[in-house]
Design brief:
Blueprint lengths: L2 E5 L1 H9 L4 E6 L5 H13 L2 E4 L2 H8 L7 E6 L6 H11 L4 E6 L4 H13 L4 E5 L8 H6 L9 E4 L2 H10 L3 E5 L16 E6 L7 H6 L2 E3 L12 H20 L1
Parallel strand pairs: 2-3, 5-6, 5-9, 6-7, 8-9, 8-10
Antiparallel strand pairs: 1-4, 2-4
Helix pairs in contact: 1-2, 5-9
Length: 247
C-alpha cells in the first residue's frame, strides 16, 4: 500500500475525520485547542502518536509549513468518474462540477478544490497528464478540502466533457478574449465550469467542447486573473444565481 505524509492542522484533521487509513500522527510542541482535537480524533481511531521536534517535522514533511502536526496515511485515492456522477445524483441537486484543464501549480489546485468544496460542487475533474495531481502540498493548500469532495483524475478531458453533456450538463469555459461575460449566463441548471492552465488557458480541443466561452470582465490595467481566483469567481456566481432563484 502506498503511503504519504500530509501536514497542517486542517488537512490532518480532515484526514482523521475521513475513511482514509491513518497510521501515525506526529506532533511538535504542546499546541492549542486544534491540536487537542487532533489528538482526540487520533485516539478515537487508535492512531499512534509520536512526539517530534519542529525541525524533524520539517524534514519529514519537506516543508516548514507543517503547523506542528503531520500524519502518515495511505496515499490519496481519486474517485472514478462514475463515482463522481453517482455522488452528484445522490445529492438530488442540480450539478456543479469544476473541470481543470492542465493546472500546474499545487497551490492553485489546492485553492480551486477548496473553493469548489465551499461552493457545494459535487466534484472536481483533473487530467492525468500535464497537470499537477493531489500531493501533500495540494492537500495543505486545500485546507483539507480534498477529503470532502470527490476528485476524479481522467485520461481524456475532451471525452469527459462529452460524457457530462450526455448527463445533461452545460459546459462553460473560462477564457479572456470573448465579449460574453459569465454574468450574462443562466447558471441554475447542471453546470460544468472549465478552467485552463496558468499560462496557456484552455486547450483548443477542450474549448471546442464548451457550449459557452465566457469571460470575467476586468476593470483595471491587468489583463488576467490567477487561475484559482478566476475559478472562485465563477463558482460563486453559480452559487449567487441559485440562491437568488430560491428567494
Amino acid at each position: 500500500m502506498k503511503e504519504e505524509i500530509i501536514y497542517g492542522m486542517n488537512p490532518v484533521m480532515e484526514a482523521l475525520r475521513s475513511s482514509r487509513r491513518a497510521f501515525e500522527l506526529f506532533v511538535a510542541g504542546e499546541g492549542d485547542r486544534r491540536v487537542a482535537k487532533i489528538l482526540e480524533l487520533a485516539a478515537a481511531r487508535g492512531v499512534a502518536v509520536r512526539k517530534r521536534e519542529k525541525r524533524d517535522l520539517a524534514r519529514l514533511c519537506g516543508s516548514e509549513h507543517h503547523q506542528g502536526v503531520a500524519l502518515r496515511v495511505e496515499a490519496f485515492a481519486y474517485a472514478d468518474f462514475a463515482e463522481l456522477l453517482d455522488h452528484w445524483r445522490s445529492t438530488g441537486r442540480n450539478g456543479l462540477v469544476l473541470v481543470l484543464d492542465g493546472v500546474q501549480d499545487p497551490h492553485n489546485l489546492g485553492a480551486l478544490i477548496r473553493s469548489a468544496a465551499c461552493a457545494g460542487a459535487q466534484g472536481v475533474i483533473i487530467p492525468k497528464d500535464r497537470a499537477v495531481g493531489v500531493t501533500p502540498a495540494v492537500e495543505k493548500a486545500s485546507a483539507g478540502a480534498v477529503e470532502t469532495i470527490p476528485i476524479s483524475q481522467v485520461a481524456n478531458i475532451v471525452q469527459t466533457l462529452e460524457e457530462l453533456k450526455q448527463e445533461g450538463f452545460w459546459i462553460y469555459g473560462a477564457v479572456g478574449d470573448v465579449a460574453t461575460t459569465i454574468y450574462e449566463q443562466e447558471l441554475t441548471g447542471n453546470v460544468a465550469l472549465v478552467i485552463g492552465s496558468e499560462g496557456e488557458g484552455i486547450r483548443p480541443l477542450v474549448a471546442k467542447k464548451c457550449d459557452f466561452q465566457v469571460a470575467i470582465p476586468l476593470q483595471g490595467g491587468v489583463s488576467s486573473l490567477n487561475a484559482s481566483v478566476a475559478g472562485g469567481i465563477l463558482l460563486f456566481e453559480v452559487v449567487r444565481q441559485r440562491l437568488a432563484k430560491r428567494a
